[in-house]
Design a protein that fits this description.
There is one protein chain. By secondary structure, the protein is mainly alpha-helical. It has nine helices and four strands, in the order ββββααααααααα. A two-stranded antiparallel ribbon has the order 1-2. A two-stranded antiparallel sheet has the order 3-4. β1 and β2 form a beta hairpin. α8 packs antiparallel against α9. The longest helix is centred in the middle third of the chain and has 28 residues. The chain starts with 32 loop residues before the first strand and ends in a 13-residue tail after the last helix.
């Protein structure tokens, strides 16, 4: 069999355009799609996450993970990287939030926005604890000098301050969050922690002024701190409590106010009380 028997001649017309070959093109749909030369966002695919670590039903979810774009990955709830996002604030943001607690004109939720943090509440609480110990010790030594008495530093008051203030900032916040959750108010745990944490900012200058050995001045400063920080918390908690169906939940505002009044009195009698004429020991 020769090769010529299978020879085939194909004639090509030079005027015929070559066939168009359709190629597969990959598009990035992460930020939108290109329709008519315009980028169209797909808002239906946007999701929101609960930054408190709890799901929509209010129950703790140990398998929940959250994606942090700045960190470029998903991390489990028990990892350090997961909680790092709640400390992702700069100095300007912390100062602004602390200032807004001293001058509670705006809604604090709008000030915080979508970035509630634990950095401010932790360090403000720690700073207040340190200042309470230092200023109470200075005031106690001044009172002892004026009374011709000897003064011994009481480090037990430091451990008491640690227990009392951390319990107030984080323990009372957790208790209030559980209570509001029970009544269906759908609060944000981090927002409540921010209220109690940044609400302690007023006690930083008050603790310094209360070094002055004048009882009327100290009572006045404690009253000012109670009013400013109390108004700051009630103003921002009231819209959350209004979400409940039962009108009796407004009594929670009284509960918050009573707890806050007890905290202010605790600071007064434990850290801001000095007897010049008698034994000079803070909190005695």
């Amino acid at each position: 069999m020769s090769k010529d028997e299978y020879s085939v001649v194909v004639e090509m017309d030079d005027d015929t355009p070559p066939p168009v070959r359709e190629e597969l093109e990959f598009q990035d749909f992460s930020s939108g799609s290109d329709v008519g030369g315009k980028i169209v966002q797909d808002n239906n695919k946007q999701t929101t996450t609960d930054r408190t670590g709890f799901n929509d039903t209010g129950f703790y979810d140990p398998h929940r993970t959250i994606r942090t774009e700045s960190q470029g990955g998903s991390y489990p709830l028990w990892s350090i990287e997961y909680y790092a996002q709640y400390f992702d604030v700069d100095t300007a943001q912390v100062i602004e939030r602390a200032y807004k607690s001293l001058y509670p004109k705006d809604d604090f939720v709008n000030v915080v926005g979508s970035n509630p943090d634990l950095y401010g509440p932790f360090w403000i609480t720690t700073t207040v604890i340190f200042l309470l110990f230092v200023t109470s010790s200075i005031a106690g030594s001044i009172a002892a000098f004026m009374s011709n008495e000897s003064y011994t530093y009481d480090f037990k008051i430091l451990s008491f301050g640690v227990a009392a203030l951390y319990t107030y900032t984080f323990g009372i916040s957790l208790l209030l969050w559980i209570t509001l959750k029970y009544f269906g108010c759908k609060p944000s745990f981090l927002d409540i922690v921010d209220l109690y944490g940044y609400g302690l900012t007023i006690w930083i200058p008050i603790s310094i002024v209360c070094v002055v050995p004048h009882e009327t001045l100290r009572w006045s400063m404690v009253a000012i701190g109670f009013v400013i920080s109390g108004f700051f918390m009630l103003k921002n908690l009231y819209p959350v409590i209004l979400r409940a169906d039962a009108k009796t939940t407004r009594l929670l505002l009284i509960f918050v106010l009573v707890i806050h009044a007890g905290f202010a009195l605790l600071l007064k009698f434990k850290f801001f009380s000095y007897d010049i004429e008698g034994v000079v020991v803070p909190g005695a």
